[in-house]
Design goal:
This is CFAP47-like immunoglobulin-like domain-containing protein. Residues 445-581 form the CFAP47-like immunoglobulin-like domain. One of its GO terms (cellular component) is cilium. There is one protein chain. By secondary structure, the protein is mainly β. Helix content is 6%, strand content 44%. Strands 11, 12, 14, 16, 18 and 19 form a six-stranded mixed beta sheet that branches. Strands 3-10-9-5-7 form a five-stranded mixed beta sheet, with no helix packed on it. The protein has a five-stranded mixed beta sheet with strand order 20-29-26-22-24, with no helix packed on it. The chain is flat, with a radius of gyration of 52 Å.
Amino acid sequence: MAYTVFSALTLDNVSSDCQASIGLQANIWHTAAGAISFSVKRRRDDDSQEDSDQDQCRVPSFQKSLSELFHKFDEEESDDSVSNFQVWYYLEIHSSPGPPVNIIEMKCLALESIYIEIPLSNPKEKMIHLDVQLSNAALNGFKQLTLHPLECINYVLQYSPATTGCRDESVIFQPDMAPEFWYLLRLTTELPKSTTVPEIQCDLGKYVTQIIPLVNPTHETLELQATNSNPENFVLDVNRSSQLTIPPHSIKEVSVHFYPSALGRTGHQVSITFHCTQFKEWIFHLSGVGLFPQPINIERITTYLRLQSSIVIPFQNPTKEDVLVNIVLTSLEKPRHLVIDRYWNSFFHETSAFKFSGLSHTQGITLPPKGNIDITVLFMPHIMKLHRTMVIVQMMRANRESWPIDNFDELSTEMKRTMGIESGEIQAIHWIYPILGLPQALHPKFPQVVIKCQSRKRIEQEVEVTLTGDFFGENPILDATDFVVIPKEYSYDSYEDIDDLPVKREFEYEIQFESEVMKSNLESCVALYMIKKSYHVNAKMIALVFNVVFAPKKPLRTQITLKIECITDGIWKFPITLVATEPDVDDVIDIEGIGLFKESTVDFRLTSQTRNPEPFTAYFLPGSDPEFFVKPQVGELPPFDTEGTVLLVGFKPRMYSRKYKATLAIQTPDMYWLYDINGLPQVTMPPMNVKAKIDTTNERFQSKPVRRRNIIRENAKLTRTGVSSTIKGVPLMLKNK
C-alpha cells in the first residue's frame, strides 16, 4: 500500500535547517498508522562524547508542538550547546477508495451457486501477474492470475451464499507493475427455492420412507429447525430436542415416513420447512397416495408336534374415523364378498391346527382413529405336514357409509377387479395376513450321537437318522426314488413361491451351531454329506445315512444339530455332540536351572497359520508347577511368512534335586499348540584333587595300645542293678534280718 504525503520541518533554533519529505501514494481505501522521526545533527570539535550521549537521551514528547519544544530548549540551553536533536511524529492516514472499474449487480438464491464473469485485458507488451483479493468467503475464485501480452480473459467467480439480503462485495486486482483496480459486486440473495418431491405411494396400513437431501454448498454451518404441516401422515425422522446441523460443503439426508390414512390423495400433502439464522424458510413439498392393501408378507410359525405356539398380528386403524372390524380365520370359515387371487387358494383349506386366542368376539369390534388391536393366533399341529391359513381383517366405517376413492380413474382394471368395485367407493377395506405352520418332530428317544476326536486329527463317522411323518398325501412317497435329499442352499423364509413346489419331495439338510461364534470356529472343521437313503412303506419312515467329517483344531465340547426340512411335511432335528480332546504335544522344552530363586529362560518364535495376524493367549494347563512363567501371555502372532513373535518360557526353582514339570498351551481363534516344559536341576561337578580339611583315616586311634577288660570281674563288683536293668538301683545282695 503506497501513500503520497509531503511534509516539511524547519528547526529555527539550530544553526542547520532540515527539511524532510515523505512520499506516499494512495490507490485504495485504507487506514495506516506509524511513526516518523526527524533528526538534525551538528558536531563541535570541543564537545566530548559523553556530552553527545547525554543530549541524545533528550527525547521530547510528540504531543507537544515544535514551538513549545524549541522554547524549552532555548531556556535550558542558552549557550547553544545542542548538537543532536530528534523529533518523532505519529501519523494516522485515512484513505478512501477510488471509483470501481464497474458495478456488477446480481441476484441469486440462498444455498445455490452463481458464476460471475469479470473481463480482464493486458494492453502491454509485457506479462502481468495479478493477486486477487475477495472480500467474502462466499466468493470463490483464483487468488493469482497471469496475463500474457495483449491477452483478454474472463475471470470467473463463484458465489455460494447462505444468508439472505442485499450486500456489497468487492474483487480487488493487484498487478505487480500497475495500479490496483477493483470491481463492486452488488449482490441480492433471496430465500432458498422450494423443492417439490416426487409423489410417493403406499398401501393403507403400511408406511414408506422418502429421503430428502439437504445440500449445503456454502462455507457456513447450517443449524436447522424443522416444522411439519402434517405430522399425522408424514413423520420427519429427526431428533426434536436437538438441531439439525449441516457442515459446510456437505449433504445430509433426512428421512420422512409416509403413513396414508385414506384411499387416494385426500389429506396426503405436507410442507416441511427448515429455518435457521441465515434464512427464514427452506420449504419441501411432499405428497402421497394411499393404495388398497395388498396381502402382507407370509408369516411363518413352527412348533413341536402336538404342542402349541402362537403368533401375534398387530393391527392399527390407519384412518381418522371410527371403524368396525371383523376378523376371519380362513382355515375355519371362508370370507364373503372378497375377491382374491387363485394364488392363495391353498390357504382356504379347512384345518383345526389354527385358532384365535384372547379375543372375546371377532365381529363388530369398534376401533377409534389410530386404535390398536392384537390378534393372537395359536398353532397346534397333529400331523407332520404343512398347514396354511389366513387372517383377514375387514374394516368398515362406523356410520356404514362407503369409503371414497379419489384416484379411482387411475386404478388398473386388475386392481378394480381385486377390490370388487365399479365406482369411486368401496364398502369395506380388507387386510390379508397369510400364515404358514410348519410342525417339528419331537427329539428321538435313542441315545444321542457323540463324535470324539483328538485335536488336529481327522475322523469320519456314519450317522443314521429316521424321519417319520405323513408321506402319503399329495405326491405320495412309495419308494426312495420319489424324494430327494439335498444340502440346503437357500431359505424358504420368504415363501414367495409357496405353490410353485417341485413334484418330488425335497428334503434339505444343514448343520446348525449353538451360536454365531461357535459357527465361525467350527464351520471349517465339520462337514456332512448324505451317503444312503431308504424308505420303509409299512412304517412310513425314511432312513438317511450321513457321513460326518470332524477335524478339530483345538480342544472343545459342543453340540451341533442336524436339521432336515421339507417344506411340505415339516422339520426334523437331530442333536450331535462333538468332543475334541487335547492334541499331541508339539515339542518338549527342557530348561536347566542356574540356582535357587534364580530365573532361567528359553525363547522360541511362533507365527499364525494364516496370511493374517491373529491374537493369541499363552497359559499353563492345570497341574503345572507354579515356578514356571511365560511372556507375553497375550499378544498377536504375525502371518506365517514372517519371522514370528518371540515367546519366553522360564522357571525359578525353590528346591534342590527336584524336577519341575508344566504344560504350556498357546491358543488362537483357529489353532492350539501344546508344549511339555521340564525344569531340570542345576548340573554340578564334584571337586577333583582337593586336599581334605578333616582326617578321615583314624590313624591315631589305631596306634593306641589295646587294653583287655575282664567283664566278669567288673560285674562281680556291682552292688546294685544298673541303668540297663528293668528294676534300677536295687541291691544285688539281700540284707540279714
